[in-house]
Amino acid sequence: MVRMSAAERRESIVRAASAEFARGGYHGTSTEAIAKRVGVSQPYLFRLFPGKKAIFLAAAERCVEDTIRMFAEASEGLEGEGALQAMAGVYTRTIAERPELLMMQMQMYLAVAAAEEEGDEEFGASVRAGWLRLWDTVHLALGADVCETTSFMAYGMLINCLSAMGFPSGHRIWEGLDLSARAEGPSKK
Fold this sequence. Notes:
- Residues 30-49 bind DNA.
- Pfam families: TetR_N (PF00440).
- The chain is an all-alpha fold.
- The chain contains nine helices and no strands.
- It has helices at residues 6-24, 31-38, 42-48, 52-75, 80-97, 99-117, 122-141, 146-164, 179-184.
- It is globular.
- It starts with 5 loop residues before the first helix and ends in a 5-residue tail after the last helix.
């Protein structure tokens, strides 16, 4: 059996934590469950991360960076409507294929509210910084048009909410979210 380096083990912990936090949220996920998923002891987990909060923030950072990378790669060499369609397409495919990415995003937002209610501002600062990097990635791809960026992000959050609630594809609730119909305009449908 090949031994993993500390960096490789840390990476496996972040992946496992992302899956566990996506399913159970910050308060509903134990470090024991994360350690068990990775196959390490809790003391080893805490040699790589100072605590549960650090593990969650590393998983949140990974989630944001994966989304940023996905949007940047999808929109590379495109602009305007082409970039919008490419980013929307890759996002909807990704959350259908990897629902844990969507659920981790939703858990991040909930964790910020809960942490700040308890007086912990670090969660919010970290998640908001990631959100701003995501916003900037989309904003640049859409030609630095604030209205297009706002619309794209608003559609994305609505898609997140509807997906998290389990509305199946083909349900009437999705009719207004067809971005290709948006590009054609209402009179061309």
